């Protein structure tokens, strides 16, 4: 609570105690990741706030990075098949199922780590519903 009147010269000479800021380090990629996976790790970690990934979420983030890189490789294989002269339908279908499975895992892990747009959606900022009169359509 503030006192009334002007501050005394003695009170102005005292430096108030300010709790020092705690420096939060961004997690480094584990050594077990490949170069592509480590690059994905860094891009995700640098995109989010520094304290977003506590130690207990590192296993989820590790799997997320592995699945993202695997999904990219599957997409490259699908592109190679599509660019070829003949289309191997069985192989194309198998790769499509693999891509779908990877997409589901990536979405699940991203949701669990609260990295999706759904986590940043604010219901209080919903767009107003615009109704039109029947004669305006």
Element layout with pairings:
Elements: H1 9-13, H2 35-47, H3 58-83, H4 89-112, H5 117-120
Major β-sheet profile: none
Q: What are the secondary-structure elements, in order, as H or E?
A: HHHHH
Radius of gyration: 26 Å
Q: Note the overall shape.
A: flat
- As an assembly, this protein is single chain
**Low-pLDDT runs:** none
* Helix content bin: 40-55%
Query: How many strand units?
Result: 0
β content, as a range? under 5%
Mean pLDDT across the residues is: 88
Structural class: mainly alpha
User: How widely separated are the two ends?
Assistant: 61 Å
Please report the number of helical segments.
Answer: 5
Quick structural gist:
The chain is built from 5 helices and no strands. It has 137 residues and is mainly α.
Keywords:
137 residues, mainly alpha, 53% helix, 5 helices
